[in-house]
Amino acid sequence: MAVILLVEDNQHIREAAAEFLRLEGHTVQELDTGAGVLDAVRSGGIDLLILDVMLPKASGFALAREIRGFSGVPIVFLTAKDSESDRIIGFELGADDYVVKPFSPKELVLRVRALLRRVQDDGRDTGHIQGFRLQNHRLEIDGTAHLVRLDTHQVELTSSEWEILLHITRYPGQVFSREALLRSCLGYSADGITRTVDTHIGNLRQKLGEAEWIETVRGYGYRFGGEPE
Fold first, then answer.
1. Which of 7, 117, 157, 197 sees the fewest Cβ atoms within 10 Å?
2. What residues are annotated to bind DNA (predicted)?
3. Same-domain status, 112 and 134
């Protein structure tokens, strides 16, 4: 069971969601503003953050941007905005899921359950260190410690970025379609938006530097370009 920080200014929505999450066995901390969110995440005691996009005197997007500067905690956005562009913005900021209001508290519980299961299973068959080479660079994936190192630097990844990288490095050189990555790596949380994959791949590429660790195969998808050691 997880410690969940729920940030939502609408009391009815917040209390209903918190009640269902507690019935699932989770510990839920509630906030009705953005104040205190950064400190709570920095404390290291939060397993998952549910964050309203539109908060009094605060933007959930802005808070997520700051959080991604120091933490990979899973983030689920709550929002009344249902356009694809808004969802893409959320995923570009490092969100792991995006729930549109009005929603059923049961739906939120299912999404949280799926996301937590994905996070817990990330290292299920990678209990060792994998090393890859590309040009003069080395990429190291430590499944036990849940760490990624590029040369001598640690790379901070979100849950979705980690899952995609873990999947494509299992099969170097194999091409994966966007649909396959949605199905295998993101599952229920992606809502079938294939552009979500492009967003996560773009974020991964930015974090992995100038070497082309992830190659685009035009008209089909992506493949990992590193050579296993």
1. 117
2. 129-226
3. no
- The predicted pLDDT at position 63 comes to 93
For the record, the structure tokens of 151 come out as 């040369």
- Tokens read off for 9: 């200014």
Q: What number of helices (H) and strands (E) belong to the chain?
A: 8, 15
Could you tell me the two tokens for 13?
A: 């929505």
Measure CA 134 to chain center: 26
Extract long-range pairs of 137-144: CB within 8 Å, 24+ residues apart.
137/209, 137/211, 139/208, 139/213, 139/226, 141/165, 141/166, 141/169
pLDDT for the residue numbered 122: 55
CB crowding 14-33: b at 16 or more within 10 Å, else e: beebbebbeebebebeebee
- 180 domain residue, yes or no: yes
- Residue 155: domain span: 129-228
- Take residue 198 and report the two structure tokens written for it: 């492009």
CATH number, domain containing residue 95: 3.40.50.2300
Same domain assignment for residues 215 and 192: yes
- Two tokens at 161? 């970025």
Reported as a single tens digit per residue, the pLDDT across 52-72 is 998 888 889 999 989 988 888
Residue ending a domain, choose from 91, 119, 147 = 119
Query: 105: how many CB neighbours lie within 10 A of its CB?
Result: 16
pTM above 0.85, yes or no: no
